Amino acid sequence: MSKRVAVVTGGIGGLGSEICKYLARAGRQVIAADLAARSERLEAFRAETAGFDGAIVFEPLNVADHAGCAAFVERIAAQYGPVSILVNAAGITRDTSLRKMSAEQWGDVLRVNLDGVFNMCRPVVDGMTAQGFGRIVNISSVNGQTGQFGQTNYSAAKAGMHGFTMALAREVAKKGVTVNSVSPGYCNTPMVQAVPEEIRNQIIANIPVGRLGEPREIARTVEFLAADDAGFITGANIPVNGGYFIDF
Ligand SMILES: NC(=O)c1ccc[n+]([C@@H]2O[C@H](COP(=O)([O-])OP(=O)(O)OC[C@H]3O[C@@H](n4cnc5c(N)ncnc54)[C@H](O)[C@@H]3O)[C@@H](O)[C@H]2O)c1
């Protein structure tokens, strides 16, 4: 059987790049889809993944562009085969309290973090149901579960992502397609390193495990949900947060 094709949006990011490596090691043909604008990061990513011998390739994508996502999925299917695994890891923050938030800061975050999930799921779902196999994993956030000061936009998008996950899971369950979300807590990535040190130390003090999460710990969870024999898990949210938020 030829390799299953996996698309990871935000694929050259802190979590996305590690997810690409885990999926490639699990025998998938991986497409790291990300903004082409980040040329320095892209160069570093290419160097990091050179040893994967073509099992990880970069393709430019803006998840906020609805028509562009449809064209992207068609192009990938023609070049590599139909998309069997989609990981939506593209994300941005524009943090500020609601009193200071502009419509642009609200809109930018919703367009990338939530519309982006719709824009990518919409064109892959028909191909997955036709194959009778599909794995969609949406990278949400603990802050979508708890809310976070300065993140009304981000928390709304991330909570919305899980509502989307549960609804789509029901729609495609009979066709061998699972849809789940992973909600990372604070991880050791550029997104979190950008938080002022004092605030970051306060965050770490509130994580029972006593440290930030490592990208590989998120990637391992995604690989698990994307496995061929994970077909009975759907509509679920898997928290990977070091005990920062515990519920059931
Ligand atoms: N790092 C954490 O601690 C953490 C915690 C919870 C949730 N998350 C979520 O995990 C995901 C990955 O986060 P990360 O830490 O790797 O951040 P990151 O900034 O390193 O990576 C995000 C990637 O998304 C890409 N991206 C942004 N806008 C895009 C667009 N319009 N189209 C395509 N790609 C776009 C960026 O270029 C970047 O490579 C995000 O959705 C984030 O919200 C991260």
Automatic annotation (TrEMBL):
Family matches, as InterPro entries: Acetoacetyl-CoA_reductase, KR_dom, NAD(P)-bd_dom_sf, Sc_DH/Rdtase_CS, SDR, SDR_fam
Gene Ontology terms, MF aspect: acetoacetyl-CoA reductase activity
SMART domains documented for this protein: PKS_KR
EC number of the protein: 1.1.1.36
GO cellular component: cytoplasm
Uppermost EC category: oxidoreductase
Keyword rRNA-binding included in the entry's annotation: no
Secretion signal span: none
A biological-process GO annotation: poly-hydroxybutyrate biosynthetic process
Keyword set, alphabetical order: Oxidoreductase
Keyword Magnesium: no
UniProt domain Ketoreductase: residue ranges: 4-185
Family: Belongs to the short-chain dehydrogenases/reductases (SDR) family.
This protein's name: Acetoacetyl-CoA reductase
Organism expressing this protein natively: Dokdonella fugitiva
